Amino acid sequence: MSPSNSPGSNGKPAAAQAVSEADFEKLMEATYQTAKRLLPFMAKRRIPLTPFNYRLFYDYFEDGGDKLKERLDEILRNHTVLSPELSERLYHEFYDYLGDRARKLTLMGEKIGSISLDLESNLEKTLDTTGHFRQILSESASQMKDNPAADGRFRDMMEGLLQETKAALNDQSDLADHIDTTSRVIANLTRELRDQTRLASVDELTQLYNRRYMTLQFTNLTADRGEGLVMSLVLFDLDRFKSINDTYGHNIGDRVLLVCAKILQSHAEAGGHLACRYGGEEFIVMCPDFDLDAARELGDSVRRQLEDTAILIRGNSIPVTISGGVSRWRPGETIESFVDRADQALYRAKTSGRNRIVVEEEES
Description:
Elements: H1 14-44, H2 51-61, H3 66-77, H4 84-146, H5 152-201, H6 211-225, E1 231-238, H7 241-248, H8 250-271, E2 274-279, E3 282-288, H9 292-308, E4 311-313, E5 316-318, E6 322-328, H10 335-351, E7 357-359
Parallel strand pairs: 6-7
Antiparallel strand pairs: 1-3, 1-6, 2-3, 4-5
Helix pairs in contact: 1-2, 1-5, 2-4, 4-5, 7-8, 8-9
C-alpha cells in the first residue's frame, strides 16, 4: 500500500485531509489577527486577561451581538473596573444569549492550556517511541530479506509496515513543526501584550507610572482594604518650571523632569509607594500605610534632595526646587477628592514662598 494513497488515521483520504488542514490554517490566521487587535485593546484599557474577559471581548470584536457590544461599551465609557466578580456576572448574563458558541469558546479557553502542556510533554516521548518502533521493524525486515526461507508475503508485509511507520514519523515531524510555529505565535502575542501593558501604565518620558495606572491602583486598594485603609499622598509641582523652559528650552526642561522623576522613584521604591507623573510638571507619590506626618516627611526628603542636586547647563548649575501638598484619604471619597485636597495644600505652599511641603490640616 503506497503511503501517498493510504487513508489517514481518521479514515479519510489524504486529499480530504489536505482540505481540512487548509481550513484549519485559515482559522488559525483569523484567530491570530483577532488576537493581535484584541490583546493591545485589553491591555490599553487595563482589562485583566482572564478566560471570561477574553471570551467576552473576543465576541465584542467578532460580532457577538448588539446587546453584548452595548453592555461592554457602557462599561468602557464609565471606566468600570472589570473585577472577577463582574466578569463572571457578565458571562452568565450573556451565556444563554450567546448559546452554543459561548460554551465552545469558554471550553476552548479552559482547555487550551492543558492541551498545550500535554502536547509539549508527550510529543518528544511519542517521537522517540515511534522511532524505536521503526528501528525494530527495519531490523526485522533486513533479517527476513537476508533469509532465503522467509515467505515473500511476510517480507512484503514488513516492508509495508516500515513504509507506514516512516510516513507516520513524517506526519509527526510536521506536527512538531506546527506546534513550534504556534508556540512562537503565542510567545510573540505574549510579548506584545506585555509591551502594550507597560506602555499603557507608564509615562513615556519619565518612565514613572501614569495617571491612569495610579487611579487603577487607588481603586484596587480602597476596594480591597476598605475603611481600614490608611493612605496619604503628596502632590508635587516643580517651582517656576515654565521659566526654566522659556530660558533654557524644552530639552533642558525634560532633563529637569527626568532628574525629579529619578529622585521620586528612589523614595517610592524605598518605602513601597507608587510614584507617578500626574501631568506636566506635577507628580504624585501615593503612600499606603502612611499618615500625614510620615507623608510630609517623605515630601520634605524629596524636596531637600532636589534642592541639593546640581543640574548643570553649559557648565553652570541652575537652581531647581519643588513644592508639595499632602492629604490623607477619607473612607469613601473618590480619587478626585483625595487629590483635590492635596492640590489645595499645594496652592498654599506656592503662595507662601514655594520650596516647601504643606499638609492639608495646616490650612484650617
